[in-house]
Each structure stands twice: as structure tokens, then as C-alpha cells.
Amino acid sequence: MVVRVGVLGCGMIAQLAHLPGLRALGELFELVAVCDSARDLAEHASAVHGNPAVYESFDMMLKAERLDAVVILNRDHFAPALTALEHGVHTLAEKPLCYTLREAEALVAASQRSGARLMVGYMKRHDPDVRRGLTEIGTMAAPHLARVHLHVGPDYGNWIIPELQAVRRTAGVPNVQDDQGRRAKVLAELGDLPDPVFTAYMEMFGVWSHDINLLRAAFPQEPTSVSASIDSSGTTLTALLSYPQDLQVVFEGTSSRQYRFEESLTVWGSEQTVAIEVSNPFLRNLPSTVRIHENGSGPGRPAAVTRTLQGSYQDAFTKQLEHFHRCVTDPSVAPLTSGEDACQDIRLMQRIIRSVSG
Ligand SMILES: NC(=O)c1ccc[n+]([C@@H]2O[C@H](COP(=O)([O-])OP(=O)(O)OC[C@H]3O[C@@H](n4cnc5c(N)ncnc54)[C@H](O)[C@@H]3O)[C@@H](O)[C@H]2O)c1
């Protein structure tokens, strides 16, 4: 079945990843309509991607078009996702699903009421090499230490990607994102937060949320204790998490002005170390790398050996869309990155931020 899809938000990530992905999967999706409150961006997206209908209002798009699904690529996904789900329209929303747990839970409830699928855009979970790494971690003996590490430079560290320089920006007044509204919602849920802690919250719900999701994919259980601290600006955070069965996790995230992108999950077990180095997702076909260090076999004192798995050149965003198509067309396939899963991420991210000691 070809899924009739509408896209909300024709900004950076739509232009770089989702619109090209939907067009490339023409046997799975028909791009019926695009919507951006900046009309010139929607018109540009339409002109580049096969002339789908153009809208400035999401509600108008939903009303006028018979859509099976929407891909939500603005910054605040709650209101459009709720409307779509209430109308029974399957929804893929970029990360973070929402900035508060209350809103994310409301979306999960709306999806359950209408039966429309809700999937969250943690595309790294669809990267075939990341999946192989997670499988290795899932079978390793006695994991006792893990480290989640990320360093994100300006423009997501994507300075080397020519397409990023070519992203079309509106010639009109840019849609001022509702920073104050977002802040008010977060503070209403968490209580008052000093500025650097609020900054750390927003960093956490930005790129770092991918890695919380990855950590939870490896270790879904709740930590027994969490303790975090941040720098004076809130753009660097370290957290120590203790898990049942004697697992200790170190989370380290920083957003800096150094042009560099590093993202990895390393787990040490009794027999092996598994290190997943996640590739820069904007370099479309750059594979992620999994390194497994282990003792060699044989008599005596076996030497350590390293195996490297790096098998796939498939783009994670495209794999994500293929999975979304399966979820929409086959009721037996549940989203790998579901709304419920995103709620668990939000619980853990909030727990880390609440534990910040200064
Ligand atoms: N998966 C990833 O690695 C990744 C990377 C970057 C961004 N993202 C996520 O993608 C989303 C979009 O990020 P971006 O960098 O493309 O943002 P952007 O600002 O470049 O694009 C957002 C677009 O949405 C439009 N818009 C905003 N509110 C709207 C509304 N109510 N109705 C119609 N149009 C509206 C804006 O005009 C803008 O063109 C964010 O949620 C972000 O977290 C994910």
C-alpha cells in the first residue's frame, strides 16, 4: 500500500533528510502535501519534490487532504501531533516528541484512543550498524560499566556538509519559535530551574536525547540512582547512573564551539568490550562502526583481539521511513521508537536534570 503523507515543517531537517527520503521511497509513500507557516519554504519544498499541495496551516492541510500519515518536523510537535492522532492520522514526529512528560503522555493516550500509530524520529535506532552493536551488547556477559559520550559542535558538527550551507531559509520573517511558551511549560512541570539548569534541560532534549534513547535501548531498566552535574553555562553535563546487577553508567554530553561531532556508546562486560561509534547522521551513507574487543581463544593466556563490524551504508533516516511504512500498513508491527518509549526517555532525562547538583 502506498501511504499518502503530508509533511509539517519544511526547514533544515525536512530539506536535508525527510523530503529526499520520502521521494526516494516513492513505492511506499506519496508526498501529497507540504506545510510551513513560511509559505516560501513550503513552495520551495513542493517545487523540488514533485509539486505536492502547499499549505501554511497544518489544520487546513489535514482538513483538505485525505492523508494516511503525517511527518511532523516543526520544533514543538505536541499540538499538531495531537490533532493528527485525534483524526486517526498516523504520525511520525521528530525528536524530542515533547518537552514535557504531560504532553508526551497525552499523545500516547490519543494514539491509543484512535489507533493511529505514533512513532518518534530517533533515526539512529534504525541505523543497521547501531542495531548490530545493540544486539552485541544485549548478549554480552556481565556488563558492569558503560559510557555514553557525545560532543556536538556548531550546526550539529555538520560544517563539512555542503547541503547544510544550501538549506533554504525563509525570505520572510522566520517563524519565531515559542521559546517562552516552551520554558513556561517545562517550569510548570519541573518547578523553577536556574538558567544553566534550564539550558542543560534543552540540551538534553536536543541532540543528547538520541543518546538517552540509545542507552535505554541497551539497558531498559530504571537506574537505582542518578547523580548529575553541569558546568556554569549548562552546556556540559556529566551524570553517574547506577543500575541493578552492578552496572555503572557514565553519561557525558557537551555542546561546544569546536567543529567536531562525536557520539558513542561503550560497554564493558566480563568477556568483551563493545564500542558503538555512531556516524554523523547528516553524512547520509557514512556507516557507524562497532568494535568488539575480547580475549582470543586457545590454550594458555589468549591474546586480546578486536573485531570491527561496519557493514551497512544504508541511511538511517531512510531506514526509519521504511519502518514507519511497515508500522502504518501492518498492525502487527509496532514502532521501534514508540511514544511510550519516548515517555520513558523523558522520565530519565528529567530525572537526570532534577539530580543536577550545581
Ligand atoms: N533527528 C535528527 O537528528 C534531527 C536533527 C535536526 C533537527 N531535528 C528535529 O527536527 C525538528 C525541526 O528542526 P529543524 O532544524 O529542521 O528546524 P527549522 O527551524 O529549520 O524548521 C522548522 C520549520 O517549521 C516551520 N514551522 C514552525 N512552526 C510551524 C507551524 N506551527 N506551522 C507550520 N510550520 C511551522 C518553520 O517555519 C520552519 O521552517 C526539531 O524538532 C528538531 O529537534 C532532528
What distance separates the N and C termini?
Answer: 53 Å
Strand order of the largest sheet: 8-9-10-7-11-12-13-14
Shape: globular
Low-confidence region ranges: none
Number of domains: 2
Task: Report the strand count.
Answer: 14
Residue fraction in strands: 15-25%
Secondary-structure arrangement, i.e. CATH architecture of the largest domain: 2-Layer Sandwich
Number of helices: 13
pLDDT averaged over residues: 94
CATH class bucket of the largest domain: Alpha Beta
Helical/strand content category: alpha/beta
CATH T-level topology of the largest domain = Dihydrodipicolinate Reductase, domain 2
Q: Could you describe the 3D structure shown?
A:
InterPro entries: Gfo/Idh/MocA-like_OxRdtase_N, Gfo/Idh/MocA_oxidoreduct, NAD(P)-bd_dom_sf. Pfam families: GFO_IDH_MocA (PF01408). One of its GO terms (molecular function) is nucleotide binding. The chain has helices spanning 12-24, 39-48, 58-64, 78-86, 101-114, 128-139, 154-157, 162-165, 179-190, 195-205, 208-218, 316-329, 339-354, and strands spanning 3-8, 29-35, 53-55, 69-72, 90-94, 118-121, 145-152, 225-230, 236-243, 247-255, 261-268, 272-277, 289-295, 304-309. The protein is an alpha/beta fold and 358 residues long. It folds into two domains: 3-124 and 319-338, 3-Layer(aba) Sandwich (Rossmann fold), CATH 3.40.50; 125-314 and 343-354, Dihydrodipicolinate Reductase, domain 2, CATH 3.30.360.10. The strands form two sheets. Strands 8-9-10-7-11-12-13-14 form an eight-stranded mixed sheet. Strands 3-2-1-4-5-6 form a six-stranded parallel sheet, with helices on both faces. Helix 4 packs parallel to helix 5. The longest helix is centred in the C-terminal third of the chain and has 16 residues, at 339-354. The chain starts with a strand and ends with a helix. Bound molecules: nicotinamide-adenine-dinucleotide (NAD).
